[in-house]
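Hi V.,

Quick status before I head out on leave. The structure for the redesign project is tokenized and pasted below; the design run finished overnight.
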């Protein structure tokens, strides 16, 4: 388990599940390089 800290505080505009998915996609890119 881990925590993501963000300044995107509007849960209607930035749902947690979307932030988590974007972070996973970003992490995959980081591992590729």
């Amino acid at each position: 388990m881990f925590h993501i800290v963000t300044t995107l505080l509007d849960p209607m505009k930035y749902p947690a599940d979307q932030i988590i998915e974007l972070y996973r996609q970003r992490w995959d890119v980081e591992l590729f390089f």
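Above is the designed sequence. The chain has a mean pLDDT of 88.

G. will cover questions while I'm gone.

Best,
W.
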